[in-house]
């Protein structure tokens, strides 16, 4: 994480949403009463999903102050808005009242977060879930590329509920044409994604073809999983949520998150800096995909520090996208890979960009 701090630009919102499936994260980490959780903040979605399980504490950390402002506004929205208004402010549902909802949330923001969002009325009006570079990248795909491949009717048909055999048939007969494969590979290439979606420095340790891996995972999401139940796919294709919502935005989680907001704390720091100042043992760690941006030696050092900070039985969860990372043999006495469980959960992963989900447990 410290390594990434020296290479990437962290001055703007990169991710206005968290593009990692909190359903499998919560199942992997097993947060709950008495547990202390550490989470990469990003936009805050998955830290809030962990909070919905009523742990003792959730610490959300990030290097980018803009990402922490995204989390702060979500927290304010849970405090100040009712459930339908929350969905409208995020952008999950259509609205012409987002500016009014922001004004209701504004008193709960600190001065820095207020100044950040006051300067971005257009981001408020569009729905704060659209405010990041990565979301604008998907909007470009949705508005400029996808109409050259498929009609709006075909997109709606893709999102209709189907049996697995029907999904496979639809994909092969109607979706997976030559234009889809060609334009997909161009748009999701290393060059295009580095320029338009992610920071180019994040590809330093990437191995192999970026587009081909994402294309294979997209096929999995459109055939093996149910698009009608996939909020990440729906936002990419529609620019909103339709029949599905990410974990933290489901009505069944709303009251639990709202009740537990005082158990959430966010800080601007690296994981290493947090571990140097926090001495209470940690039970659950969401590392997002931070090892994607780190060398193998630095990844090993961070895993060693986390193993030392974790209570026996503590769990770490993280994703690999294009750079393979996991516990090295040198830490075999400290961390236990939970490979079968991770593979089972990964098969259900609705945020389908990643190539692997990793769970490791601090040895008893």
Which characteristics define this entry?
Rossmann fold; alpha/beta; seven-stranded mixed β-sheet; 364 residues
Description of the structure:
- The chain is of the alpha/beta class.
- The protein has one domain: Rossmann fold.
- It is 48% helix and 12% strand.
- It has 19 helices and seven strands.
- The protein has a seven-stranded mixed sheet with strand order 3-2-1-4-5-7-6.
- Helix 4 (65-80) packs across helix 6 (98-105), helix 4 (65-80) crosses helix 7 and helix 5 (83-90) crosses helix 6.
- It is globular, with a radius of gyration of 20 Å.
- The two termini are 26 Å apart.
- The mean pLDDT is 93.
Summary of the model, kept short:
The protein is built from 19 helices and 7 strands. It has 364 residues and is α/β, with parallel strands linked by helices.
Oligomer: single chain
| Spatial sequence of strands, sheet with the most strands | 3-2-1-4-5-7-6
First and last CA, distance: 26 Å
In N-to-C order, the SSE pattern is HHEHEHHHHHHHHHHHHHEHEHEEHE
The helix count comes to: 19
Q: How many strands appear in the DSSP assignment?
A: 7
The CATH superfamily is known as Vaccinia Virus protein VP39
Strand content: 5-15%
- The coarse overall form would be globular
**What is the mean predicted local confidence, pLDDT?**
93
What low-confidence regions span 5 or more consecutive residues with pLDDT below 50?
none
From the 3D structure, determine the CATH topology: Rossmann fold
Radius of gyration: 20 Å
> The biggest beta sheet, please?
7 strands, mixed
Summed up, the domain count is 1
* Overall CATH architecture: 3-Layer(aba) Sandwich
The CATH top-level class label: Alpha Beta
């Amino acid at each position: 994480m410290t390594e990434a701090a020296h290479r990437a630009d962290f001055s703007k919102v990169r991710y206005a949403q968290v593009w990692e499936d909190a359903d499998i994260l919560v199942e992997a980490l097993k947060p709950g009463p008495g547990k202390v959780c550490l989470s990469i903040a990003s936009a805050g979605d998955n830290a809030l999903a962990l909070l919905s399980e009523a742990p003792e504490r959730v610490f959300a950390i990030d290097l980018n102050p803009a990402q922490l402002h995204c989390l702060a506004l979500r927290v304010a929205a849970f405090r100040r808005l009712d459930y339908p208004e929350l969905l409208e402010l995020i952008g999950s549902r259509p609205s012409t009242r987002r500016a009014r909802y922001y004004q209701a949330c504004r008193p709960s923001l600190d001065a820095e977060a207020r100044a950040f969002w006051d300067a971005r009325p257009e981001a408020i009006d569009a729905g704060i879930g659209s405010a990041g570079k990565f979301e604008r990248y998907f909007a470009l795909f949705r508005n400029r590329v996808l109409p050259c491949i498929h009609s709006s009717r075909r997109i709606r048909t893709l999102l209709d509920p189907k049996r697995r055999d029907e999904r496979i048939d639809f994909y092969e007969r109607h979706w997976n044409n030559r234009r889809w494969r060609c334009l997909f590979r161009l748009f999701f290439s290393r060059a295009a994604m580095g320029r338009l979606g992610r920071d180019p420095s994040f590809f330093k340790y990437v191995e192999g073809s970026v587009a081909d891996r994402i294309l294979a995972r997209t096929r999995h999401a459109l055939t093996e999983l149910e698009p009608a139940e996939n909020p990440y796919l729906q936002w990419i294709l529609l620019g909103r949520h339709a029949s599905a919502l990410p974990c933290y935005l489901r009505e069944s989680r709303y009251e639990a998150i709202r009740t537990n907001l005082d158990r959430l704390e966010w800080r601007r720091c690296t994981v290493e800096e947090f571990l140097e100042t926090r001495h209470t043992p940690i039970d659950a760690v969401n590392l997002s995909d931070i090892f994607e941006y780190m060398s193998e030696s630095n990844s090993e050092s961070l895993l060693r520090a986390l193993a030392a900070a974790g209570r026996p039985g503590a769990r770490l969860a993280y994703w690999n996208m294009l750079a393979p990372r996991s516990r090295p043999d040198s830490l075999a006495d400290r961390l236990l890979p939970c490979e079968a469980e991770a593979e089972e959960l990964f098969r259900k992963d609705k945020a389908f960009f990643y190539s692997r989900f990793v769970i490791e447990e601090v040895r008893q």
